[in-house]
Amino acid sequence: MFHRLAAAAAAVLLVPVLSASAASAASAASAEVHPSSFVVFPTDGNVLPLNVPIMIAGYSTSDDGPAAVTAVDVSVDGGHTWQLAQGTGEWSYIHTATTTGQVDVVSRARSATEVESPWRHTRYAAGSGPLKPLPCTRCEFWQPLRGDRDYVAVDSDARPVEVGQKVQVDRAGYITGVTLGNYYPGDDLLARVWSADGVLLAEAHESPWSRFFYFPEPVPVVPGETYVVSYFTPYGHYAVTNGHFTGAGTVEAPFSSPPDAGVYHYADEGPVPELGGFPDQTWGGSYYWVIPHFQLTP
After folding, report:
1. Less Cβ crowding at N or C end of the chain, within 10 Å?
2. pLDDT of 149-204, one tens digit each?
3. Do residues 14 and 33 touch, judged by C-beta distance below 8 A?
4. Is residue 172 within 8 Å of residue 284, measured between CB atoms?
5. What contacts 24+ positions apart, CB below 8 Å, involve 100-103?
6. Pairing mode, if any, of strands 227-233 and 190-195?
7. Which distant-in-sequence residues (6+ apart) come within 8 Å of 217 by Cβ?
């Protein structure tokens, strides 16, 4: 009788202990935050120039959204070594390829409770390689959001100004127009393409009720030459990401831009204040959200 009572008492005493243990495990499991990260720029198959710092960028999220991600690491050797990226929700990392060969990029996000097990690989060729097949008939050179810089939709600068960006192409084709990331209400904007030494190659007024500009005659462009795509705003208030091109260029076939690619020219400094002019000054690695269009045929 004593043995049966003792066994029953032990069973009763063990029940709350086991239940508490199970509850603790369930609570710990529910507290885990599973982070994920993605490389989105440049896309797979691009060719990176040698000895030029190039921005690699992406985003991260988790079960609780991007705010729960505490850091993102990037590897350019397939996961053997890791470096801390700038930013979390949107992140960026600057890589300079110094030798020819493959650049195998993976990223991993971290939360307070877990480190992502990376498995997505994005691969580039450094120095030389086959041209990336274009997935577009009209390709546009959008820039990523850099993890350590802020986008300003409407800058407070009200001076008349021409703002733009230096670009190159990796194959012969045509620049057919531009899209602007300028959302300040107003018109009288004028988009242009220039040669590197300031020769005006084309200009166009915007399409009605849009920020799209189509040049009357597509501009032929060739590899090895630098071009400037720009627009003139008589009232300023351009969109800008200051520091976007600081210490880094960008690549997304068929386009590339060097470090400090953003350029400007204040029209009130002449020669024709009401018409703008060739932008050849730089400030703080700024990016002015001028997006060129490329086509293989006119």
Report:
1. N
2. 989 999 999 999 999 999 999 999 999 999 998 888 777 899 999 999 999 999 99
3. no
4. no
5. 100/50, 100/125, 100/126, 100/127, 100/128, 101/125, 101/126, 101/127, 102/126, 103/48, 103/76
6. antiparallel
7. 202
Region of residue 8 (phi > 0: left; psi between -120 and 50: alpha; otherwise: beta)? alpha
**The pairing of beta strand 122-126 with beta strand 47-48:** parallel
If you search the block for the tokens 């002449």, which residue do you land on?
270
Distance CA(148)–CA(245), nearest Å, equals 12
Token reading at 293: 């269009």
User: Could you give the domains of the chain?
Assistant: 35-126 (2.60.40.650), 139-295 (2.60.120)
pLDDT tens readout for residues 83-95:
999 999 999 999 9
Nearest to 290 by CA among 74, 128, 143: 143
Which tokens is 64 given?
A: 């609780």
Q: Are 247 and 257 in contact (CB under 8 A)?
A: no
Radius of gyration of the chain, Cα coordinates, nearest whole angstrom: 26
Give bridge partners of residue 265 from the DSSP assignment.
Answer: 162
Please count the residues of the chain: 298
| Cα–Cα distance for residue pair 68/83, rounded to 1 Å | 20
CB-based burial label for 250 (10 Å; 0-12, 13-18, 19+): buried
- Bridge partners for 191 per DSSP: 204, 231
The single-letter code of the amino acid at 48 is L
Q: How far is CA 130 from the centre of its chain?
A: 23
Token pair in block for residue 220: 């032929």
- Residue 276, C-beta contacts closer than 8 angstroms, at least 6 positions apart: 160, 161, 162, 190, 192, 230, 232, 265, 267
**Is residue 4 classed as helix, strand or coil in its secondary structure?**
helix
Residue 6's H or E segment, with its range, is helix 2-31
**Cα 84–Cα 89–Cα 91 angle in degrees, nearest 5:** 40
Task: Tell me the whole-structure pTM to 2 decimals.
Answer: 0.85
